[in-house]
């Protein structure tokens, strides 16, 4: 028996219905990221709990590690039990945990709540990516994953907007934001529960190249995860992109700090530069995703974006300590975010399609393994990067990020897929 909120489709949705279900999956991605956002209240929270930045870094690292384990198992279980069966409870319980967060008055209590929230959230993020794949045939998959990447960006924007409007109303009490996030998340969860559906296991096992109302019924074997583990090109995807993510998460976590420390910007100026870069990245992933889908090519865009990222990052590192002007720094930083977007979304489509070619029944497991490895890398980043920066400055750590880009570039040799558009078959006379 399936839970009441699970609606399984035995016919692949087409037209506006598919677009609506894809939009619900993207909304679920936004909610999963929004309900665990802490950046907006972190300064107030640290002051209230008398918590040093080093202690918070340790809490963040351990809670992310817990989330990584959850991502791996969540993806595997979603292939077996269904996406929505796990997604709806994880989103709802995480939203409710915000009310528990509002009661925290010790560092130990914060550690417990964050581990609990990220353990649940890790599974949800993986499942939203799997749903996006389920509702995006290959002809539009890169653009669909582009919209999925808007989840973290939209969550950050929503949390910041709410905090700027409501914190003064509640005397800058950080607890108010935890309660508001809980309420908003539960409301959005209600919308998701009302609208969400998922393809049946038999439908998920189909490789959909274009939008066709395929009908498939019956139960199928969900497959064995070891079927994925013995394919080296999938491991090349996972480890290569994990190297790529070192740079991305460095800027996601420390972007403003790098600009303030290296170029003497104010906090407000640094936030403005980061916001500009994020906007360019959000535009790039959609535009590049659309072009990649039209040509049905992935690897050329990933290659071009990675080479441009390496070149742009080299320029950015050279600017550190050179006394460069503000406009030059803004231009290079924005260009860096732009080219990161060029590489990322075509790679996601490439990885999804390569895993699909191996075993379409295990798409959740493939994305879950990737999510788990990336989160373990984030833990290492949180623990190691401060030590490297203390010894050699931000230039030294950014060179580590550049090395990760090179690893990703080399790993592309093992990726499957075409380098050029297929030639039309010649007519037979």
UniProtKB/TrEMBL annotation:
Residues 20-419 form the Major facilitator superfamily (MFS) profile domain. It is a multi-pass membrane protein. It is found in: Cell membrane. It holds the Pfam family MFS_1. The chain crosses the membrane at residues 21-43, 55-77, 84-104, 110-132, 144-166, 178-197, 246-264, 270-289, 301-324, 330-352, 364-384, 396-415. Keywords: Cell membrane, Membrane, Transmembrane, Transmembrane helix. InterPro entries: MFS, MFS_dom, MFS_Efflux_Transporters, MFS_trans_sf. The keyword Transmembrane helix applies. It comes from the Bacteria. The keyword RNA-binding does not apply. PROSITE patterns: MFS. Its main location: membrane. This is MFS transporter. It comes from Nonomuraea roseola.
